[in-house]
Structures are given as C-alpha cells and as structure tokens.
Design goal:
Four copies of one chain form a homotetramer.
Chain A: E1 8-12, E2 19-25, H1 35-45, E3 63-66, E4 68-69, E5 72-73, E6 78-83, H2 90-93, H3 105-112, H4 129-145, E7 149-156, H5 159-167, E8 174-181, H6 195-204, E9 209-214, H7 225-228, E10 232-235, E11 238-241, E12 249-250, E13 253-254, E14 259-265, E15 275-279, E16 284-288, H8 299-318
Helix pairs in contact in A: 1-4, 1-8, 4-8, 6-8
C-alpha cells in the first residue's frame, strides 16, 4: 500500500523526433510560473553559445500545454513540450549498426531488441535534459516560496582543459557541485526513503553521471571521526553544525545545513578519434569514427540539469 | 499506473528493541533457502570477532517465519526475525537529550518530534543491517541460479589504520568495492528507472554511506574520452569491452561486463573524545562523551551489507 | 525497495487547453503500432456521432511524438498528443464560481485552492479519456501478440432510456462489462498487488465510475457457496472452471478463465435542469443552470475507455 | 520520480506458520498506541465467539516489536507479530493436491510453481487479516486525532440466513458498508491517484471481496442525473450536500461528506459438500470434500477488516 499523492515526473522524446517533453504530476497548485526564468534556465543548458560547447543550436521554444492556467499552476499534471530543430539525421545512418563506445547503444540494443531510435542517441540523448531543466525551473520556483535556493559550481575541468581536449579532437569529464540552501531540518525519510538515496537515484538518471557524493563524499574514506564529525552549535537561534561534512543529510534526513552534493560526469563518449567496436546484430568487430557536432565537455551545460534534479527531488520531499 | 508485481523489502526494529527483522516481498518462488549460508553471512557482519570491531557480541539467531515452506521459497513475503541480545540500554540514558554528532539523532528529533527510540540509535542503528544481510543472502542464492556472483573488497582503510584509530579512541572511514559477475547485458531501465540510480538509492540507505561510484567513478572527472571509453570487442562469442570504466552500466542498463560499485563510508560517529553538541529540545550547547562499545571502523563489517544491497537491487531488476 | 522496470502511464491536459495527451512508460519494444486502429478506437470514444451523444465534435487527430520509430515501439516512453478543437470556453465564464453538483468542482476547489482550470471541467473532463483510449489501443496490440483479446458490452441503459433522458433534459447512468479472453493463469499478484485491486484502481480513475465488480460481483451477497463455487474441470487439455463466477481472478491471480469486470457509471452530472448549489470562495447558496453541449449518457462512449484501462492494467501485469 | 515518504504496509505469514504479522512504514510519530483497543479490534475479527463463526479459536496475542517506544509511535516502521495457535495441519494433507474451488489454490499453483504452503490456504488465508486489523487499529487512532471516525454495518446476510447456510453444510456471501466521518474536503488525488481507486485497491486485497461500490454504487446504473446529483448547500458554516449519493468522493477527491463504501464478499469457498475439481500437477479430474473448521459466512468477522483497510487508506492519504 502506498500513499495517494506524491510528486513525480516522466520525460519523453528522442533526439531526432519531432518534439520532446516532460510531464510533472502532483506539483503544488498556486505557484506562479515564470516563463522568462524557464527560458533562461533552458538557455543555460543550450549549446551553441560558446566555443566550449557543441555548434548544434537549440533554441528550445518550449510551451506548457497543461497544468498551468492564468500563469499559475493548477495542481493538474504540467506538460512541457519542446520542439526539436536542427536535426541532421543523416549523420547517423552510416554508423547506425556500430555500437558507439560508452554510449547506451549496445545495452539498449540488447534490452530493446534493436528497436531503439538510433539517431543521435534517441531517447538516451542529452537532449532529453532540456525538458528536465524546464520542469526543474518550475520546481525551483516552488522551492523559492519555501525559502530554498538552489545553486551549482563546476569544480572541474577548467576552461583551458576543455579547449585543449577540443583541440585534440577529444573530450573530457568533470564534476559539478550542487547546493540547496534553506532546506528545513527534518526533511527526508528513512531506510529506502532516505533523501540522499532519493536524490542519488535522480542524479544517476542524468546521462553520464558516474558518481554521487554528499558532503565530504569520497574524502571520508581516509578521515578520522574526530576530524570530520560535524559538531553542533546554536547560532542565530537555530541548531547548526560548525562544519558541514555530512552535506546537510544525516541518516537520510536533512540537518538544516545546506545540502551539498557532487556529481562526476564521464567524458562525452563521442570523440572524433577512431575507436574499436562491434556492429550489431552481426557481432562483427569493426572501427568507428564519430562525426557530427559534439561537446568536448558537457559539464558546463550539465550544471543546470543537476540543479533541476535537486529541485525536483526536494520538491517531491517537501510537497 | 504501476505494474503489478515488483520485488521490494522493508526493515524494522530498533537497536534495543526485542527483535529486528525484514520482510522481502514478491521474491521468486522455488528458490532453496540455505540457512547455513544466511548464518555465515550474518557472521561476516557480526561484531565481536576480532580486535577490529565492537566488543558487542551479536549471535544473530535468526528465524524465518514466513514465505519459506520445506526450505524452499513459496512466493509469499519472506519475513526474517532476529532477536536482540546483549543490550546495555543504560549506556544511553545519560546522553539521551544530547545530539550525537554525525548520528541521525538531531534530524530524527526534528522529523519525529522527539519520539524516536534514542537507545543505541534506535531504528537508525547499524544493527538494522543484520536483517538486510539475511534477506540479501537469500537474494544471492536466487542470483546464483541465474549465474550471478556477488563479491566485495575493502579498499580502505588498512587493518593498521583501524588499529591506530582505535588506539587513539578515534574512528576511521573507508571504502568498499562490490562486484556482480554474470549479469546479462540489457538488464535495468531508463530515466528514473536507471539501474545505477536504483542501486545507489539502496546503497545510500546503508547507514554511513556518503558516496557511490560506478566504474571509474570520481576518476572520470579528470579523464579524457579517448582514455576511458570502453571499446567493444568480441570474446568467447560474446560482446565485451576491453576495459570496464563504466562499471558494467551504461545509460542505466547493463553492458554484460561486471557491475562494479564503490561505497564510501564516513567514520563511525561514536568516538570516545569529548565533542561539542546541543541538547534537545532545550537547544542548549553542551559537551558529549560517548561511552559504550563501538567499532573504530565499520567498513570491514559493512562489506557484506553492501553485497546484500547489490543482491537485493539486482534481484529486483531480474525477477 | 521497488523493482526497476514497470509499465506506467500519466495523462495530462485540460478540456479547453491547447492539447491533451498521455505518456506510456516501460512499454515493451518491438510492438507494431497500428495508427488506423488507434484512430478507430478514438472514433468509438468520440462524440458527435449520433443523437445519443454530445454534439461536440472531436476529431482527435492524434500524433505520437515519441517512443515509436518506423511504426514500431522502441521501449522508450510513448507520448500521444491530441489537439483540442471546438472549444466554447465562453460557456463556462458565467458559472465559473458555481460548484456544479456531482462534478469535481468543489473537491478540486478545496484541494487546489481555486487554481483549477474551470473551463469544461479542466483536467477532470471526460475529454482526458481520449489519450487513455489511444494508449489503451497500443496496449491492446501488445496483448494481441500474447493472444489476449479485450471486448466490452453496454449492459445498461438501453438506447430508448438514453433518448428519453435526453428528451427530459436529463441524464442517465449505466453499466459496462469488460472482458479479457486469453489471459494465462497465474498472472497477477498477492496482497496489495492483487490484480483485481490493480485493475479497480485504474477503473475508478475513469471519471464517473462508482462501482467495480468482478464476476458475479454484488450478486455474491445473497449467494450460497454451493451455488457459486466455480468447480474445476479439464477441457481441451487445460484446467478450466465450469462456471466463471469469480470473473477470472481468485486471490488476486488469474485462473485462466476470462477476466470479467463490470463498471457502473453515475449519470452525466451536467443536466439542463436548475440545481441548488453554492458559489466559492464566498460560500453562498445559489442556483445553477448548466448550458453547453453534454451527453445524456456517457456510457456508450465509455465502453472503449473501460477496455483501454483493462488493456493497460493487463499490459502492466504481463510485461 | 516519486516522492520520498508515503505510508505503506506489508503483511506476511501463513495460516499454519509459526507467526504472522504486518509492518506499517512511514506512519506518523507521536501517536499513542492503545493496546487494549488493538486487542478489542482483534477480538471483533477473531472466530470462535459464536455459533456464526468457525470453532477455530484465535486468541491473537499480538506483540508490537518495533516502531513504538513508551507506548507512542516513533515514526520508524511498526511491526506487529501474532503467533499462530490451534493449527491442525493434518486436515490438509489429504487434499493438498486437490485445488479447492474458489480458493486461490489453482492460480497460486500456476504462479508459484506449486511451492505455496498449502496448509489452510497458506498466505492466502483469511488468517492474514488479523495483522491488518491490528495495524488498522493503529491507523484508526491516528485518524481519531484528526477527528475522523470509522464504522461499519453488515448489510447482508441476516443471522438467520447464516444459520440456515450452516445447517445445510453450506456457506453464504454478504455485504459490508464502511463509513468514514469527518474526512476533510480536498483529500485524495487525481487520475490514478484517485482516492476511490486507492481505497478500492486495498479493499480488493481483502480475501473474498468481489465488488466495491461508493455511495449509490451499482444503483447509479438506472438512475437519472436529476434524481441522484448531490446538490450543495451551506450548513453549520460548511459546504455540504443534501444527499450523499457520491459517497463522499467526487473526481477522486473527498467532498467533506462521509466516505461510504460497500464491499461484497463471496461465500466462504470451503463447504462440506462434495465438489468437482482437479488435482495438480497431474491435471486429473477428481472430487473434493473439505473438512476442517470453517465459517459459514465470514462477513460478520470481515467488517472490522474492511474498517481497517479504510483506516489504512485514509491514513496514507492524510499523513
């Protein structure tokens, strides 16, 4: 038996389909929707803005077709639709049977019996993070009404490293830190409802994420308790900790300190260098050279997506 | 709308309650239950076995009260009950209002309005990993019938480092790597059903886990695509990759390579050194000295728990 | 902990919004999509076809924007979009503060703080059953590949009774029986995963459904066990029952006999006769006369929706 | 993506196992547990109290082993354990391969490959409603703190009809009406989260329930809108309806009127008359005579179970 109402979402669409989108269910009613803010968040995610990113230009002219009336959420499912543009599907015909290394091509081929839309990664494309960004923007607005602010920082790589990878026809991974300030203590759940677990599940659904850390994360491995225990104090009439090594979550529940998570992204799998691979379904070894327009590093664009997931996860925990 | 049948579990009990346990639902019927194997897995988790662990002796005389008939699973919910013994509840009376740093005391106090059982961490105790270990052992047996083997390795700390921390009245964190060999390609899901996300959600429900990585994990942050892309080959009539930086999961779906995950644990929060903290509900700053018997490092005992969670997660994905 | 992959769907849109739709997730890959069949199912549901139904003409020019490639399902979420046409929003301005009896207006007003789209019932409109019908048609095609056929019969009211209600400016309720032939024995679940419960949950999400029965249903209340026990026999090499009072489900699991369910619909709430009601938020008693175009009886149109829900529920149980 | 915390429960155990029980998760903290009330609810459900019920005496000495501390709920999972007594397992050996008509024997045999515990219905036994009754009693106490009262009435059969069925070695079905007074308007959800659907899913998980109606239920089939529309008024400063044909739920959301549901139970399948059936796995036609102690009618005992499910469903919707 499960409770009646919980916030949830689904994303749909393919890189080279006509439209992509997301539906956000059980979102609170009465939240003013800021269309300019959604557009600005989509612009943060969109490519084509600098030499750091793919030349593929995504204008992301989103429309909200449900769940919003007179610019305010109604409580009914919110569906955001974004048309696809600028699709060069021909780029993918030549290599459609070749499994691109580190892409989902091969696992998806096995799982779905070769029925996936192979053009540009299909449903596995990073393109699908656009509607997540859009509904994440709506979730951020809800959180703001609760005094919660989401932010992020790209910890690595540097702009220099990205440009060097690009010059080499290569790609590079990186790390994003996301923070939620203002989350009240006592938010979250226990056991498999632990908030860190719920957030991690969402973070790992972002393409290319391979590690999720909270607070000191992997650095706890060599740490002494006496050095990293967050000791409590009272400050400004509130219980706080003098450090925040736990990243705002202890035992699956928030402590009232900022939630701090780090997401590590693997390098963009698509590189212009030749790579060994196999073709399917004939299982023949071959070589692949991936053409088309690709980011040398998705991390700068992914920061807003990580923020969106944090906002959606917290929105679910607080609504 | 959600599908009818999915494997799931709940854990229940408190550190100083009469009994703890777990119920495992929608587990496949017809799996022979190996009681000796469950006992040996519980022994791996139990303390009191060496100078590395807590002197608290847990004999873990489990009983299975449902879902097993003539030593074979029936398909009905499997309930494992483990009696608690050796409880020194008095150890906790003195400090019951003092929030122990890095324990769930304070977040739980806020969430549950001070109603939690404070003795030994109550439901948040690592003690609750015993029933998880027991049902994980049953899940491992199911996976074995599918040709899947689960193993683990403690990557850090060394035995020496643990003993040094103990000598200092301190504690130390660490890292466990868990591996699943033999998982067929094409297992898992997409979007928020991604297998890495599902597993991470379970891993983060283990007390003290603060980071979850798959494959190269955090090391992807500084890596070039050309260096870390797992290139495909055909070996023994099967599609394989020559490296396994993705840790067996790409796009949320298994690749047929071993699933490799790393879990970082924070140091045992309970240390004998005095720490600053607050008492609740009066919000007064104070000092706490935690007595009682505590592990200087839970990582050696936690390895089998991490294996159990991997087994339960994969069991759910494959059943 | 819950399993990774389960079929599920969401519907979105409002009666007078630009578009409505549904997204169907974790649907099996490799199923050929029959666009003509979807259109014919939508035509069964659409009004304007006879004097029995609303003069509002719905052409239902659906499009599938994701999850289908080369007319075959890919395994990715399937999103169906249907544009709204023929909206006379002005019909609703006059009565927008008046809570229409037996409509969701008042409960929704309280739940959503008056933010709902009031035009034509908004998200609560029977219009939303169009995308359910569309994805139900896709689910039926999947079931056909498993040898399962879904059908329905309107048990009441007769065409005469509908016409008499219409002539009186009134409306009338009715009952639909849905049947699934060919469902293999052993499908379903136990406890809260019982298949009858899962199906009932879906059936009650159809607007106006107020009773769900399986097999002999309410007639069991006065029946003797000796009269209604379905006795087993062997027929054609298969275990069958000589009667099917249980409607194909016993203990939450299918028996191999046809699944038979009956859904009772309340009369269309919108009638042209004056009714007592209140206005909100001022809580003033008043009178309402509902204009606009309304079905005297939705039951003939609802039969295909009931079939769709049965197909979606069984699809989830079998995939 | 789903929200973090929702009330849910699992039941476990078999009719002839050592113990049965239930675990109730995410139940609110701070609710005083009334052990006498739980016992009195279990007594309502227990047999052996009159000539109307089975001579099997169930004393139901329950114990709560978790989630309650100092007689108050803690917010951690609440596990109730009830020992089994008075088991005459030998009664079932003779007929263990014979599929009892209208019991779950055959569907379960197919689903679980013949591994079910066949003694007394195993996990499918009505015995499992005892722990549901116990956690339902706890849920009722929570609802009382919100001003909600649950009650029930046996609509049929009469005591006379039960005694006549018993005299004939037969059994008889019946109908229970359950009511929840005091549920605030605006409770519930939309689409597949509709409260009537959520409640129906729980009701159908009670063994033998074959129909669930809300308000006028099946009587809507022949009703005119003008006759059954619940017209609104203002009474005592609150919006009410002058009738309650909708049974307190419209569009999946509560109206503030009492929730009224009716559950129809099929007759106890176990009758002493000889019945045709098949044996498994050999699929041979045969005859079965069911001995042992059985209720001629479970309906009087089932009323409290129906109340418990209503309480659990509403508890989930309100917590």
């Amino acid at each position: 038996m499960k409770g009646v109402v919980h916030m949830r979402f689904e994303v749909f669409g393919e890189s080279h389909g006509p439209e992509i989108g997301a539906v956000l269910c059980n979102f609170p009613a009465g939240i003013a929707v800021d269309f300019d803010f959604i557009a600005s968040e989509l612009a943060r995610r969109a490519g084509g803005n600098s030499e750091l990113t793919t030349p593929r230009r995504e204008s992301d002219n989103f429309r909200i077709i449900s769940g919003v009336f007179n610019d305010v959420t109604t409580g009914a499912p919110i569906c955001v639709i974004i048309p696809n543009e600028s699709a060069h599907s021909g780029d993918y015909e030549e290599t459609k049977n070749k499994m691109r290394p580190n892409h989902a091509d091969y696992p998806a081929f096995v799982k779905f019996g070769g029925h996936s839309d192979y053009r540009g990664g299909g449903h596995f494309s990073g393109r699908l993070t656009a509607p997540i960004t859009a509904i994440g923007a709506i979730a951020k607005t809800f959180l703001q009404t609760r005094g919660i602010a989401i932010s992020s920082a790209v910890l690595s790589p540097s702009e220099d490293e990205i440009l060097r990878a690009k010059a080499d026809g290569d790609s590079i991974g990186g790390c994003v830190e996301v923070t939620a300030n203002g989350v009240p203590a006592g938010t979250g759940g226990i056991d498999t409802d632990s908030l860190d677990g719920v957030l991690a599940k969402l973070f790992f659904s972002i393409p290319a994420v391979k590690a999720v850390e909270f607070g000191a994360g992997v650095n706890f491995a060599n740490a002494r308790g006496s050095a990293v225990n967050d000791q409590f104090c009272v400050s400004g009439g509130q219980v706080r900790t003098t450090t925040n090594n736990c990243g705002g979550i202890i035992g699956g529940i928030t402590s009232g300190m900022p939630i701090v998570a780090r997401l590590t992204f693997k390098p963009t799998p698509s590189i212009s260098k030749p790579q060994h691979t196999v073709s399917m379904p004939d299982m023949r070894e071959t070589t692949i050279e991936i053409r088309g327009r690709h980011d040398p590093c998705i991390v700068p664009r992914a920061a807003v997506v990580a923020e969106a997931m944090l906002a959606l996860g917290l929105g679910g925990a607080l609504s």
